[in-house]
Amino acid sequence: MMWMHVACELLLAACCLPPSLAAGRRGALLAAIGFGLIGVAAFLGAWVYAGAQGLVPTHELATFFAARLSLFLIAVAPPHGRMQWVGVAAAGVVALLIPSPLDLAVSVLALGAIAWKGRSQRWPLAVTGAALFALAGLVVGTQGAWLGIPRVDLYHLSIAAAVLAWLAAGVARTGQRTLSALSR
To answer: Is pLDDT at 174 greater than 60 in this prediction?
Structure first.
């Protein structure tokens, strides 16, 4: 079954690359980082499942950052000017430091922002992605199995499907002038 864990992690990592690159090309630096965090955590997870036990602490750290920051970074509007960048950075620090039950509220708010009508080119796909992401965390989980399929694999496949839905919805294309705001 380890090969299935590796395959699901690699699939998730591969699914995160196109929206990360698309967001970067459009100047949505924060969304690019958000998708990238999910992809890096998945890539490291594939290595861990393949037997690279020395990467366990790195994978756990990457997973923590992805869980706490990725949705927030994908959801946040591109900041304009230094003060907005400071505000986004402060909110990111808060997202990292708040206790575990409250981080769920940040994720739910971020999913709502990602699925907000008018935020993407194809709103129903953005909502579908948000629903898939929420179902992955709240229903599927990572412990146990369903019909002999490890839930951790279903979790990763659900997130991969959510990321692809967001890519098709154009969520990664919402940024503009993010990189130029850094130079102000």
So the answer is: no
